[in-house]
Amino acid sequence: MNSEAVNESELIRTDVDGVSTLQLNRPNRRHALSLSLLSELETTLQSLKDDRSIRVVVIASAGPVFSSGHDLGEMQQRTEEEYSTLFATCARVMMEIRSMPQPVIARVQGFATAAGCQLVAACDLAVAVDTAQFATPGVKIGLFCTTPMVPLVRNIAPKIAMEMLLTGQPISAKRALEAGLVNRVVSEEELDSTVKELTTAIVASSRRTLALGKEEFYTQLEMTEEEAYARAVSVMTKNVLEHDAQEGMAAFLQKRTPVWSE
């Protein structure tokens, strides 16, 4: 079933066959993450969490820039409370991406800078065109990219992250791939088909199993190896007893397509 939501100004949501694409829609501001856009993104992500029809979320935009980060035009001469609200809202969006059951893919067709780079790093997967660049250039304007640093350093080696943060210089899509910031780098012509390849593979699996796997992936990262194994044994034991695991094994042995519970 295909459906498209009404254009809601700064964010366009399109749902097609289990995939919800959220397109940043501020082309005149280089898709900068204004407080209103962040708030809309947060609300939309929260609503998607409980949407059983959606198995994958794609965050995208159009034009030469994926996102230029925070809107500097909105950030001058504000109060401490207003700045705190902006950065806290941005942080909540990134945590929503991490905590929602569906895998989230960044479709990066252009430059991703500052909080835009943060958004890419916060996603579970990322596909970028070969001309894309990634940067945390806040240091150049006296504003260290402290919040973008949080997911960045959890994606790439500390020394590469520090280089980006201290110099503000962009890295190429090729280096981003080598560093682990993105999963694949493709030509502009291959971008949509590559994203589709990933979403198709994900949609084919059990939604419940994907949700369990995503949660456990991030949980065990914060543990020691011994703690991670202890938790993994417990979780996998419970998982294998569930309907979808039993159904999946039976379908494999019977050479048929599994019928998932959701």
From TrEMBL:
Keywords, sorted A to Z: Fatty acid metabolism, Lipid metabolism, Lyase, Transit peptide
Source taxon at top rank: Bacteria
Keyword Transcription regulation part of the UniProt annotation: no
Listed InterPro entries: ClpP/crotonase-like_dom_sf (IPR029045), Enoyl-CoA_hydra/iso (IPR001753), Enoyl-CoA_hydra_C (IPR014748), Mitochondrial_ECH-domain (IPR052377)
Pfam families: ECH_1
GO molecular function, one term: hydro-lyase activity
GO biological process terms held by the UniProt record: fatty acid metabolic process
Primary role: May play a role in fatty acid biosynthesis and insulin sensitivity.
Annotated family: Belongs to the enoyl-CoA hydratase/isomerase family.
Protein name (record): Enoyl-CoA hydratase domain-containing protein 3, mitochondrial
Organism annotation: Thalassoglobus neptunius
Gene name in the database record: caiD
